[in-house]
Design brief:
This protein is an alpha/beta fold. Among the domains are: about 275-360, Serine Threonine Protein Phosphatase 5, Tetratricopeptide repeat (Alpha Horseshoe), CATH 1.25.40.10; about 460-535, no CATH class; about 545-670, Nucleotidyltransferase, domain 5 (2-Layer Sandwich), CATH 3.30.420; about 675-890, Rossmann fold, CATH 3.40.50. The protein is about 60% helix and about 10% strand. The protein has 38 helices and 16 strands. Strand 13 (about 790-795) and strand 14 (about 800) form a beta hairpin. The relative contact order is 0.05. Keywords: Membrane, Transmembrane, Transmembrane helix.
């Protein structure tokens, strides 16, 4: 709520007229000032009149600071009356005076006060206009000018600095950049505690704003913990606006938690402070409508929303964001009508809302966020009533808005939040394309569905790969690129320190480094236009491009795990299929149980096989399998299932007749297929772990590492030589990396999942996922023969946020990883066969298939036939054969030459 911040405005607008000798001129100025203040809140024109006289007198005497102070007070009056036109006129006068007398102001002891006031007024002006990009620049000017001042100057300008942080954070929160917003609020709270610890009011304002972020993150209980403390404070200070703001937010959280009695209680607290003309009347009616909606009382809910709409139309006439407010009001009405199955009424209101949002002349990001939500609701309604062509048109429009928004999201968590919120939009589009495909049998609808699946997947990973290419091809000087690498490594190092030991000093240092890096990247994007274009202006691969990318014996199967249905798109050179499979309510728990059984060697094999048959029926059986080599793009919970284990009607595992590889999206696969010059050498790591360590010894990992060298040139670093330092320095020199070690998944913070290396006194021995983002590899293949290296937190569209995925950020082209805690002995057997097959020229998917089928055939009649022992390994990425001079080829050539020599000698004799 912007009103939370509006009250901060008044904190910084106190001026003193007693800084110089108290002569007649100053008495006159003070008298005019006092008269203006005494009448301004009854009649704004009278206030302006007295201040204008003060300005004229000050200019006559060339006391420019008094003239400026009078302009500032004039602006405050305009703010009080929300007189946008007057604020614009006053700002021009302020700007003119400062520019003409800049030399004069720069000589004043309190020159920074004037600069900060001007930046603040402009920042606030553009904030109220929803022009967030321009507003942020003015508030950032305050931070840049103030933050590094001496302690005395900092104390005098502390309120400016704090308010600047608050506004930038608020704008980020409005735009859905919640991680950035939270970071700024926390920085601001640390700042206030450090330089203004007695100012409880400002601290509580920031706690309120931080609570808003938590509310938007759907952490309603945590949000209310802050709001309830703030409410108690504001009640003690008898601050009506703040009491209402906190109460409304508490009520909203309780509505989301379905605690309606509590919601009503706090709504009534707010009502006691509400007068009939207050803008908060709209919030009161909107929350009342949400309560009635939860109680399934449509008539009362729609009445409340119409009251809010009426207020926006007739009372909030001076509101700067009237188009946005009206757009939101009509969206709320449409959403209610959609819920109560009144689609035609809902569509009319969504269309009206969209028109109001389109009337935004600034094309602000916050407006686009609201527009995106409304388009999503409209697409859902159109989908529900079977108007599928309009659904697709709406989804296409919304998708273009999403593409506009994405470049402004710099934080990965915020990008994920944006994509997750947009995910249902793509589902509506895919369903519409499916329905139209059934009716028309036109291939273009499959193409449309395929495009939607691609746009919903692997946004972060693709951006990282494109960023790497952009820096390579945009002709950026090496010195500048090295500077960024240093910054990124410093950030990662600090993050790891803070993760193990919370420290406010380190948190401030990290905050400043991240701001520095963000500015650095923004400057790159401005100075090197080609870098920006390569980074952001990329298109998802089309269906036809994908078909051309595939070989004659390859079939790509892309899944979209929707709310109520699983959509499957099968693509080969000469055929396409689009299939919809309804999901029952138990599907999620069924997949989770299947995964637990797969990863447990003691689970009942017959029961497991029945589950694998059912999964095959729902995921593979509907498709016409026409090719041997399958490329799977899993989605949702399907990321946890190795498709190799699915059992067909002939009781055969899928892997027995097909090679299988995985990829996050076809667009990503295209990016991974660029050629890379490699030396075809292998580097294996087999660290040692003592019984005293929390990580147990791996008795077979040395053998596993040595076996790799039976088939490829290279080195094996074992025991005390298998250190993280060696990995960082040596790995970029090799095209094949094999890590036979422990992997530990951190389900609380996936970026701190790690691979363990041998302990090295005084140095780190854990390679975190976060470290991989700064690592530069040239690997055709990375094999992670470690427990759960392919498991991580599941994110919509991005898949599993695993250690394996981290290696793609480092530049790996393909990755062999594991889906559960593997058996050390069986892993050694599988890997030996895998590298044997690779050395013979097999593609990576074929090499793994042969190794797994060989294991199955050799263990059909013993306990090792359980999929736990052989199915944990998967291969993903670019699966082309490794171009290697393998030992078996040389052995064959040598044998042939020896035979020819013997034959020659025999004939000679």
């Amino acid at each position: 709520m912007k009103n939370i911040l509006s009250s901060i405005f008044l904190i910084i607008t106190c001026f003193s007229f007693s800084q110089e000798k108290n002569n007649e001129f100053e008495k006159s100025i003070k008298t005019l000032h006092n008269k203006a203040i005494s009448v301004a809140f009854k009649d704004q024109d009278s206030g302006y009149f007295y201040l204008q006289k003060s300005i004229a007198l000050s200019k006559q005497r060339k006391h420019w600071q008094y003239a400026m102070d009078a302009y500032f007070e004039s602006y405050n009056i305009a703010f009080h009356y929300n007189n946008l036109h007057k604020k614009k006129i006053i700002l021009k006068s302020i700007d003119s005076l400062y520019n003409k007398q800049e030399h004069y102001f720069n000589k004043l002891d309190n020159t920074l006060k004037y600069k900060n006031h001007i930046n603040y007024y402009y920042g606030f002006y553009f904030f109220r206009l929803n022009n967030y990009d321009t507003s942020k620049k003015y508030f950032q000017n305050i931070i840049d000018d103030t933050e590094n001042q001496d302690s005395e100057t900092l104390k005098k300008n502390k309120t400016f600095l704090s308010v600047a942080y608050s506004y930038i954070a608020k704008m980020n929160a409005d735009e859905g950049k919640l991680s950035e917003s939270s970071s700024l609020y926390q920085k601001n709270i640390r700042l206030l505690k450090k330089i203004d610890s007695t100012n409880k009011s400002s601290i509580f304002y920031n706690y309120n704003l931080l609570a808003e972020v938590l509310k938007k993150e759907k952490k309603h209980t945590a949000s209310n913990a802050y709001f309830l403390k703030s409410l108690a404070y504001h009640i003690s200070k008898n601050s009506p606006n703040s009491i209402m703001s906190s109460s409304f937010n508490i009520s909203k959280n309780y509505i989301e938690l379905s605690k309606i009695d509590s919601a009503k209680y706090y709504l009534n607290i707010a009502k006691k402070h509400l007068n009939k003309n207050h803008l908060y009347n709209t919030t009161y009616h909107e929350l009342n409508a949400q309560i009635y909606s939860q109680e399934n009382n449509y008539s009362k809910a729609i009445l409340e929303l119409n009251k809010a709409l009426y207020f926006y139309k007739n009372y909030a006439t001076t509101a700067k964001n009237k188009n946005q407010n009206l757009g939101l009001a009509y969206t709320n009405i449409g959403e209610l009508q959609q819920k109560f199955n009144k689609p035609n009424l809902a569509l009319n209101n969504f269309s009206t809302a969209i028109q109001f949002f389109k009337n935004d002349s600034i094309k602000s990001s916050i407006n686009n966020i609201h527009l995106l939500k409304t388009l999503k609701l409209k697409a859902n309604t159109l989908n529900n009533i079977g108007d599928f062509k309009k659904t697709i048109a709406t989804v296409d429009y919304a998708s273009s808005i999403l593409d506009e928004l994405k470049p402004s999201f710099k934080n990965n968590n915020d990008k994920l939040f944006l994509i997750e919120n947009a995910f249902p939009l793509f589902e509506y589009g895919i369903n519409a394309a499916y329905q139209l495909n059934i009716k028309s049998k036109k291939n273009n609808y499959i193409e449309k569905a395929f495009l939607y699946t691609e746009k919903s997947k692997s946004v972060l990973l693709l951006e990282a790969l494109l960023n790497s290419k952009a820096t390579e091809y945009a002709n950026i000087p090496i010195k500048i690129l090295e500077e960024e690498e240093i910054l990124k490594n410093e950030i990662t190092s600090l993050e790891k320190k803070i993760n193990s030991n919370k420290n406010e000093t380190l948190e401030d240092e990290l905050f400043n480094l991240k701001i520095k890096h963000r500015k650095f990247v923004e400057k790159l994007e401005t100075d090197y236009k080609n870098y920006y274009n390569l980074k952001y202006n990329f298109q998802a691969i089309t269906l036809n491009e994908t078909k051309k990318m595939l070989n004659n014996n390859e079939q790509l199967i892309s899944y979209f795990f929707g709310e109520n249905a699983l959509y499957t798109i099968s693509v080969s050179r000469n055929n396409n299929q689009l299939i919809k499979t309804s999901l029952n309510s138990n599907i999620k728990s069924d997949i989770e149980l299947t995964y637990r059984m797969l990863s447990n060697p003691k689970s009942n094999l017959n029961q497991l096989k029945n589950r694998l048959k059912t999964l095959h029926k729902n995921t593979i059986a509907p498709i016409s399998l026409m090719h041997k080599n399958l490329i799977i793009i899993p989605d949702g919970l399907l990321n946890y299932i190795p498709f190799a284990t699915l059992i067909d009607n002939n009781s055969k595992y899928l892997i027995e007749n097909h090679t299988i590889s995985y990829i996050n999206s076809a667009t990503l696969l295209k990016q991974l297929q660029s050629k890379q010059i490699n030396n075809h050498n292998l580097l294996a790591f087999a660290p040692s772990f003592s019984n005293n360590n929390s990580l147990l010894p791996l008795p077979n990992n040395k053998k596993e590492a040595d076996n790799c060298l039976n088939y490829f040139k290279g080195s094996a670093l074992k025991n005390e030589n298998a250190t993280l330092t060696k990995f960082n320095t040596e790995s970029p020199k090799y095209s094949i990396l094999h890590l036979a070690t422990h992997a530990v998944f951190n389900d609380y913070n996936p970026e701190y999942s790690f691979l363990a290396f041998s302990e090295n006194p005084g140095k780190e021995n854990l390679l975190y996922t976060k470290d991989l983002y700064n690592l530069k590899l040239n690997a055709d293949l990375v094999t992670l023969s470690a427990c759960e290296s392919g498991i991580g937190e599941l994110k919509r569209g991005e898949g599993l946020m695993s250690l394996a995925r981290g290696f793609y950020f480092s530049g790996a082209k393909s990755i062999a990883s594991t889906l559960w805690k593997i058996n050390d002995a069986s892993a050694t057997n599988l890997m030996d066969n895998f590298y044997l097959n690779l050395s013979k020229g097999s593609t990576k998917n074929s090499a793994l298939q042969k190794a797994q089928v060989n294991f199955i055939n050799n263990n059909r009649d013993n306990a090792l036939n359980h999929p736990y022992y052989w199915a944990g390994f998967i291969i993903s990425g670019n699966i082309v054969a490794l171009n290697t001079t393998n030992y078996w080829l040389w052995i064959g050539i040598a044998t042939a030459l020896a035979l020819l020599l013997l034959l020659y000698l025999k004939r000679k004799n």
